[in-house]
């Protein structure tokens, strides 16, 4: 497990771009605001996943289905950082509700 955490200083309604290719991963101008690029491993919130690649899910200690079934006991950040994926970046941003965050995982 080797990840780099980048805490974004953005509002919950701001777009978020991939630092590699500059594609807007979170794009509020689109009806489907989740727009993963080729570098995106996952897009998660403290309350569950919005997107995840099979490649990343296979490195997690619990499946997405297990996590969603037990979301009342979920610590998303702990689950993500316990992954055995070799190297990745986690961009953390405010979700707009007190104490809740969005996490965007990207290849390093």
What is the compact description of this entry?
The protein is an alpha+beta fold and 108 residues long. It has helices at residues 54-57, 64-69, 76-81, and strands at residues 3-7, 16-17, 24-26, 40-45, 48-52, 88-94, 101-107.
Structure write-up:
The chain is an alpha+beta fold and 108 residues long. It has one domain. 15% of the residues lie in helices and 32% in strands. It is built from three helices and seven strands, in the order βββββαααββ. It has a five-stranded mixed sheet. Strands 2-3 form a two-stranded antiparallel ribbon. Strand 6 and strand 7 form a beta hairpin. It is globular and about 35 Å long.
Strand line-up in the sheet with most strands: 1-6-7-4-5
The overall pLDDT, averaged over residues, is: 94
C-alpha end-to-end distance: 12 Å
Strand proportion, as a percent range, falls in: 25-35%
Features:
108 residues; alpha+beta; 5-stranded mixed sheet; two-stranded antiparallel ribbon; 3 helices; 7 strands
What does the secondary structure layout of this molecule look like, with pairings?
Layout (H helix, E strand, L loop, with lengths): L2 E5 L8 E2 L6 E3 L13 E6 L2 E5 L1 H4 L6 H6 L6 H6 L6 E7 L6 E7 L1
Parallel strand pairs: 1-6
Antiparallel strand pairs: 2-3, 4-5, 4-7, 6-7
């Amino acid at each position: 497990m080797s990840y780099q955490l980048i805490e974004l200083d953005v509002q919950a309604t701001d777009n978020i771009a991939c630092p590699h290719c500059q594609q807007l991963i979170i794009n509020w101008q689109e009806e489907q605001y989740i727009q993963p690029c080729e570098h995106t491993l996952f897009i998660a919130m403290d309350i569950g996943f919005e997107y995840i690649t099979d490649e990343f899910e296979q490195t997690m200690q619990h499946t997405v289905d297990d996590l969603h079934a037990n979301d009342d006991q979920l610590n998303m950040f702990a689950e993500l950082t316990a992954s055995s994926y070799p190297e990745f970046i986690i961009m953390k941003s405010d979700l707009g509700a007190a104490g809740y965050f969005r996490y965007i995982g990207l290849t390093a």
